[in-house]
Design a protein that fits this description.
The chain has 371 residues and is mainly alpha-helical. Helix content is 65%, strand content 1%.
Length: 371
């Protein structure tokens, strides 16, 4: 009996250019700017101020989670649709080259600043950031305010843990079981948050990684729905009112911040808002999200998110400003953008290209990156 050779996993000659969803760059820009204004001190310019974002800009992290949950699942399902399967090896190679190099450069810089006495960072906090368990490091004892320069790694840790859950779930389950399973896991997270945690402050600084996973799991379930042609058409029709969802989200954040039902509602409303702009890109606001300067900020948003923590400390940090004028306006904005742009063009972009070369994705991506 002659054995047939296993067919080689080949890329289609002309894959659909759906791996890149342009409006998401605009949403990333909004998310990272919200985080910056939340971390910065309050600014006032006559009747105009940054007060709303100073109080509620932490929801920018929730928006980042929604983007990641939707996009990562979307791309994995496209790979399955095109190739017939999902390659875990290729996924983790691309994620490693996407996430780790800029983070390592930032952590090395922080270590140098700490060793030279410019800032003070505990070894435990630094190792927690390096190995993506910063959201657990508080279990080992009290965290000082000095850890503020690495506090944003709690959200990166949550995302990394999501990357360990979703791909395996998609590989091991059939399509009809995926949405029920994702929503069941999200419900478990929400019950845990309601029963065990209670207060919003613990949701952000507590040691439990699961308290925010529903903000990734629910968007992933929407990505599964959107992969069905019939369901996608229905979503496109229903979500034409997505700007209204944006207004609802703003009201929820402003007037019911911290309540259990508000937090849970946002986990569903944010991915619906994102999908609305993706599926209906012809609206004025969607066009604004695709405006080139906004898209550029979105493209470098990961590097901005990493570096802004050194320069925007006016909201929470009670000590002196260790970096001096670089942590005060307007130089804090210049410094954060300069370091982020340098990191993106010299570290992030070349390593993403290398990761794509070693593990080619199923679909073509942005114009500044190879397929």
């Amino acid at each position: 009996m002659q054995l047939k050779a296993k067919p080689e996993r080949q890329r289609p000659a002309k894959p659909e250019k759906t791996g890149y969803l342009p409006t998401l760059d605009g949403w990333r820009a909004i998310a990272v700017l919200a985080v910056i204004f939340f971390h910065d001190k309050l600014h006032s310019f006559g009747p105009i101020s940054t007060g709303w974002l100073y109080s509620h800009g932490n929801s920018g992290v929730d928006l980042f989670f929604a983007i990641s949950g939707l996009l990562i699942c979307w791309r994995l399902l496209e790979e399955e649709r095109i190739f017939g399967n999902i390659s875990l090896r290729r996924f983790y190679v691309r994620r490693a080259f996407r996430i780790l190099p800029p983070a390592l450069v930032f952590l090395t810089t922080v270590a140098i600043l700490a060793l030279t006495g410019v800032i003070h960072i505990g070894v435990r906090e630094w190792l927690g950031a390096l190995f993506f368990f910063h959201n657990y490091s508080s279990l080992l004892g009290h965290l000082s305010l000095d850890s503020i320069f690495l506090d944003h790694f709690w959200s990166l840790a949550v995302e990394e843990h999501f990357y360990l859950i979703l791909p395996g779930l998609l590989v091991l389950t059939r399509n009809r079981f995926r949405i029920p399973l994702l929503l069941t896991l999200a419900a478990i997270v929400e019950v845990h948050r309601f029963v065990v945690l209670g207060s919003r402050m613990w949701i952000y600084v507590g040691p439990h990684t699961g308290v925010r996973l529903d903000y990734l799991l629910v968007p992933a379930s929407f990505a599964v729905i959107a992969q069905s042609g019939e369901a996608k058409d229905r979503l496109k029709k229903w979500l034409r009112v997505w700007p209204v969802l944006l207004i609802v989200i703003a009201i929820l954040i402003t007037y019911w911040s911290g309540r259990f039902w508000q937090i849970t509602s946002l986990a569903f409303l944010m991915p619906m808002m994102l999908l609305g702009s993706i599926l209906n890109p012809s609206g004025i606001f969607a066009k604004l999200l695709e405006w080139r300067p906004i898209r550029y900020v979105g493209r470098i948003s990961y590097s901005i998110y990493l570096w802004q923590e050194l320069f925007f400390i006016g909201h929470f940090y009670t000590g002196s400003f260790p970096l001096g004028a670089l942590e005060r306006a307007p130089l804090c904005y210049v410094a954060a953008l300069a370091f982020a742009a340098t990191s993106y063009h010299l570290v992030e972009q070349p390593l993403i290209k290398l990761g794509h070369k070693l593990a080619p994705p199923a679909t073509t991506g942005r114009g500044d990156l190879p397929s």
